[in-house]
UniProtKB/TrEMBL annotation:
It holds the Pfam family SLBB_2. It comes from the Bacteria. Gene3D superfamilies: Outer membrane lipoprotein wza domain like, wza like domain. Belongs to the BexD/CtrA/VexA family. This is Soluble ligand binding domain protein. Keywords: Cell outer membrane, Ion transport, Lipoprotein, Membrane, Palmitate, Polysaccharide transport, Porin, Signal, Sugar transport, Transmembrane, Transmembrane beta strand, Transport. InterPro entries: Poly_export, Poly_export_N, SLBB_dom. Coiled coil: none annotated. It is a multi-pass membrane protein. It comes from Bacteroides coprosuis DSM 18011. It is found in: Cell outer membrane.
Length: 260
């Protein structure tokens, strides 16, 4: 009777320790104390890169003056459409970081924020006496990020606003699966002719301090699988009748030896 009680207690403790270990591996931002207020240090604005597709619309109190500045110069197809082609019109940033804008000609836009480009076009129109009261709207048309690895819904996601965080991208992909390593979430970025990779530990609040916390156009987020997932993959690769027969035979032999 006593041995049964001791066995039950031991199993309960083992289950408790295993549960604590699982929590530490899966809970996000474990080092944040309750009711903590953190200052947002990063004032991030997305910048224009090569191959970006920009929508630039010019308006004025005199609509006729704005007409020459609203001629689309690039036809860019996004995705496939079995019922016809979905075409978006805009200005494609070329390999030199320039766009060819009506009337104003070539404009070097790489590295500018949306607001900086807006102000630049306004200033040119006013200083060159084209429009005295221009209203310029600039938007990104092909801002997307990709999320792959151990997430519920991997894929590429379009961003409608000016910015997206690492956590928002993971949320769009349905969050990490139970097999995703919370301490090995990589952001892969191509910038200035270099490919940069930075890993993040989502269990720590230091994720918010990462220079890659705010994602850029065409960033890739990759979640590594844990050992359990890798082991399952190996088992599936060796999923043959002969393998399982051998395992069953071994288990039977061990059971016979134990019960003797």
């Amino acid at each position: 009777m006593k041995s049964s009680v001791y066995t039950g207690m031991a199993l309960a403790l083992l289950f408790l320790f295993a549960s604590c270990g699982s929590v530490k591996k899966t809970v996000y931002f474990q080092d944040i104390e309750k009711d903590t207020v953190q200052q947002v240090l990063q004032q991030y604005e997305v910048k224009v890169h090569k191959d970006d597709l920009l929508s630039i619309v010019v308006n004025s109190t005199n609509p006729e003056l704005a007409v020459p500045f609203n001629s689309p110069v690039v036809s860019y197809q996004i995705g496939g459409n079995p019922y016809g082609q979905a075409t978006v019109l805009g200005y494609l940033v070329d390999k030199k970081g320039e766009i060819d804008f009506p009337v104003l000609g070539k404009i070097y836009v790489e590295g500018m924020t949306r607001n900086q480009l807006t102000d630049y076009i306004k200033e040119r129109m006013q200083s060159e006496d084209y429009i005295k009261d221009p209203i310029v709207s600039v938007k990104f048309l092909n801002f997307k990020v990709s999320v792959m690895g151990e997430v519920a819904r991997p894929g590429s996601f379009s961003v409608t606003g000016d910015r997206i965080t690492l956590l928002e991208a993971l949320s769009m992909a349905g969050d990490l699966t139970i097999y995703g390593k919370r301490d090995r979430v990589a952001v892969i970025r191509e910038e200035n002719g270099e490919r940069k990779i930075m890993y993040h530990d989502l269990r720590s609040a230091r994720t918010f301090e990462s220079p890659f916390y705010y994602l850029q156009q065409n960033d890739i987020v990759y979640v590594e699988p844990n050992k359990r997932k890798s082991q399952q993959s190996e088992i599936n690769q060796n999923n043959s009748v002969g393998t399982w027969v051998s395992i069953a035979s071994l288990l039977t032999s061990m059971a016979v030896l134990i019960w003797k």
